[in-house]
Design goal:
The protein is α/β, with parallel strands linked by helices. It has helices at 10-23, 58-66, 84-87, 101-116, 119-127, 153-164, 185-191, 211-216, 234-242, 273-280, 295-313, and strands at 2-5, 26-29, 47-50, 71-74, 92-94, 145-149, 168-172, 194-197, 221-225, 246-251, 284-286, 322-323. Bound molecules: 1,4-dihydronicotinamide adenine dinucleotide.
């Protein structure tokens, strides 16, 4: 089992080494992200392991197939960067559906609290012996209304945290459960002081936060996005901030992050005007897709990914972590019948 591992960071190697040795899997760590320019690195391997900003589009999939790649192992939950339809019948796809929903939910709240109470500003001030409080006023969280879009694993952890702060929680999900306070999407937009996104990026959710939805929101609303950048139309967000409609934006993800996030670009001229302006805003806080980054999450990712690799090469049927474009469709989804996708 030889696996080409793309977009490697030092913390990946540390987390994976233990499991590779225990489970006898050969992994070659490559720094570049998988895309059409780097796909040749996969020649001679049985499978590839990729992360959130690798680009497994149809052209890349066809090349991987030509090179004899049998499986793609995503070491993350989201799979919007893999063309699962192009993979069907050719390359099996596995993911890590859950590794630590707490890590992401806690980071979402950390971003909001930092921005709300201006902790990042205060930290810089006191390091320079500036003990002024001017401009550091925040809002009580207790009693405020938070709208949670997507009430899966991470959304639910976030809801628990909000309830601990005494906030009122409104929920929206395309597939609502029966134990939460669900309302329409419009009600979320109209009534929430804070909106936090925890749904996947799909054609339906792309630019869920846009010019029209922002119009419906309360003045001063805070928007938190730790899911995928494409959920927000960044230009509309920026306009909403400039118009003083949006009071706070807390972003761990950005639609055009692929070439920027996870890299040190400090010595470079940035070409993305929208991102530059967002970063310059005093009420915007941005982290570079780090919500997952806890020791517990890294260990769980490495554990589940290497289990997925073993499961695939042993030919196990019905692995719940395998996915294809038929997933969840009762007629076509073989996984529901405990079979392999193809
Ligand atoms: P999950 O699958 O447990 O929950 C997603 C929820 O979204 C489900 O309840 C689902 O019904 C709902 N949903 C699906 N389509 C929807 C729609 N059109 N409108 C509203 N809700 C919809 O996923 P989980 O583990 O909670 O992760 C959520 C997202 O968080 C992932 O899709 C991923 O994009 C992102 N993520 C970000 C990380 C980071 O480091 N920033 C790390 C891990 C995940």
């Amino acid at each position: 089992m030889k696996v080409a591992f793309f977009d490697t960071k030092e913390y990946d190697e540390i987390a994976f080494k233990k499991f590779m040795e225990e489970r006898n899997i050969e992994i070659k760590f490559f720094e570049p992200k998988l895309n059409i320019d780097t796909v040749d690195l996969a020649k001679g391997y049985d499978a590839v392991c990729i992360f959130v900003n690798d680009d497994a589009n149809e052209e890349v999939i066809n090349k991987l197939y030509e090179y004899g790649i049998k499986a793609i192992f995503l070491r993350c939950a989201g799979f919007n960067n893999v063309d699962t339809k192009a993979c069907f019948g050719k390359i099996h796809v596995y993911r890590v559906p859950a590794y630590s929903p707490y890590a992401v939910a806690e980071h979402a709240m950390a971003l909001y609290m930092t921005n709300n109470r201006r902790i990042h500003k205060a930290y810089n001030r006191t390091r320079e012996y500036n003990f002024s409080l001017a401009g550091l006023t925040g809002n009580d969280m207790h009693g405020k209304t938070v709208g949670v879009i997507g009430t899966g694993r991470i959304g639910r952890c976030f809801i628990n945290i909000c309830q601990g702060f005494g906030m009122n929680v409104l929920c929206y999900d395309a597939f609502p459960a029966n134990d939460l306070n669900y309302v329409s999407l419009d009600e979320i937009f109209e009534k929430s002081d804070i909106i936090s996104l925890h749904c996947p990026l799909t054609p339906e959710t792309r630019h869920l936060i846009n010019k029209d939805s922002i119009k419906k929101m309360k003045k001063g609303v805070a928007i938190i996005n730790t899911s995928r950048g494409g959920l927000i139309d960044a230009q509309a967000l920026l306009d909403g901030i400039v118009e003083r409609k949006i009071g706070s934006a807390c972003l761990d993800v950005y639609e055009e992050e692929a070439e920027l996030f996870y890299e040190d670009k400090s010595g470079h001229i940035m070409n993305d005007d929208t991102l530059l302006k967002l970063i310059a805003m005093p009420n915007v806080i941005i982290t570079s897709h780090q919500a997952f980054l806890t020791h517990e999450a890294l260990e769980n990712i490495a554990d589940t990914t290497t289990q997925n690799i073993l499961s695939f090469f042993k030919g196990e049927q019905g692995n719940a972590n395998e996915l294809c474009y038929h997933c969840g469709n009762e007629q076509n989804c073989k996984k529901l019948r405990k079979e392999k996708c193809f």
